[in-house]
Specification:
- Belongs to the CobD/CbiB family.
- GO terms for molecular function: ABC-type vitamin B12 transporter activity; threonine-phosphate decarboxylase activity.
- Keywords: Cell membrane, Cobalamin biosynthesis, Membrane, Transmembrane, Transmembrane helix.
- It is found in: Cell membrane.
- Helices cover about 75% and strands about 5% of the residues.
- The chain has about 325 residues and is mainly alpha-helical.
- The chain has one domain.
- It has a two-stranded antiparallel sheet. A two-stranded antiparallel sheet has the order 2-3.
- A hairpin with a 2-residue loop joins strand 2 and strand 3.
- Helix 1 runs antiparallel to helix 11, helix 7 packs antiparallel against helix 10 and helix 9 packs antiparallel against helix 10.
- The longest helix is centred in the middle third of the chain and has 48 residues.
- The radius of gyration is 20 Å and the shape is globular.
């Protein structure tokens, strides 16, 4: 797909998803592309991840499963592109709507806003219940500040994984590029864990996800720094300093970049030691501000997030216009 077409489709997809999201009725009726990808991953895990196989054989099986996943997903998306693009304006519009299902601006905002609402209306219990929908850590181990930090961390990380990364690969590779990214990211979230069942089988998914998220995580940090310069009560200098000082010390090669930018912009400390299930995971702090985050800080983070999403749309639209002017 020509870059001019993919950038136009990206601009339309970002606008459509921000305005409408993914209708709940449609989800109830046919599910969601991520759930379809998830069904394939579950099937591959069930069939090819045998517990009686050696570590090496299970790692090889995981590599093969990932190749099958990206081939099936990429081929299906590429065929849709080949069918729809010749339809002109109608085809571009349909591709934009399909692409919008792979971006999660609206749903991420709603889930994080629900944590703030839960804390305000239901106290600690309400906050814990809402945050358990978006993080993997044990919510019962979190106090009010921990709930708020977890929500802000999830917002920052998923801004990269759920919005900027699919947008980046959509711009470079069209619908097929975004679908391939989404398949990889979903595989990492489902099987890319260091558990007895998935440490070997999910190795390829986890490593490949780290690779494909690398450019988006850096771009996400830049967008948050830029958004901090436009919002009230946020510090672009603090965001930039936190990225330079802390991002590379995060246990994830990518999550530290948007988390550090968010922490520095808001004057907070994010990440650090936390509990998943019954296991405490050690990690470096992102930012050097206060750790006592509140529901008000969640609202500040959401305002920063909305500005960063607007900047992403502006960047896509500006590049689309620039290519159109050059091509004339």
């Amino acid at each position: 797909m020509p870059l001019s077409d993919s950038l136009l489709i990206l601009s339309l997809a970002l606008a459509a998803e921000a305005a409408f999201g993914y209708p709940h009725r449609l989800y109830t009726w046919i599910g969601h592309p991520v759930t379809w990808i998830g069904w394939l991953i579950k099937g591959l895990d069930r069939v090819s991840n045998r517990e009686n196989w050696s570590f090496s054989w299970r790692r090889a099986a995981g590599i093969l499963a990932l190749l099958i996943l990206v081939t099936v997903t990429g081929l299906a998306a590429w065929m849709l592109e080949r069918f729809l693009l010749p339809l002109g304006t109608v085809g571009v519009g349909l591709l934009a709507l399909l692409s919008s299902t792979l971006i999660a601006q609206r749903s991420l905002h709603e889930h994080v806003a629900a944590v703030s609402k839960g804390l305000r209306e239901g106290g600690l219990g309400g906050g814990r219940s809402a945050v358990s929908m978006i993080v993997g850590r044990n919510p019962q181990s979190l106090d009010g500040a921990g709930v708020s930090r977890a929500a802000i961390e999830s917002l920052a990380e998923n801004f990269s994984d759920g919005i900027v990364a699919p947008a980046f690969w959509l711009a470079l590779g069209g619908l097929a590029g975004a679908a391939l990214y989404k398949a990889t990211n979903t595989a990492d979230s489902m099987i890319g864990h260091r558990t007895p069942r998935h440490e070997a089988f999910g190795w390829a998914a986890a490593r490949f996800d780290d690779l494909v998220n690398l450019p988006a995580s850096r771009l996400s940090a830049l967008l948050i720094v830029s958004a901090a310069a436009l919002n009230r009560d946020t510090s672009p200098r603090g965001a930039w300093q936190a990225v330079r000082r802390d991002a590379s010390h995060h246990r994830s090669p990518n999550a530290g970049w948007p988390e550090a930018a968010m922490a520095g912009a808001l004057g907070l400390r994010l990440a650090g030691p936390r509990i998943y299930g019954d296991v405490q995971v050690e990690d470096s702090w992102m930012g050097n501000g206060r750790a006592e985050a509140t529901a008000d800080d969640i609202e500040r983070a959401l305002a920063l997030y909305r500005t960063a999403c607007a900047l992403l749309f502006a960047l896509a639209a500006a590049l689309t216009l620039l290519i159109w002017i050059i091509a004339r």
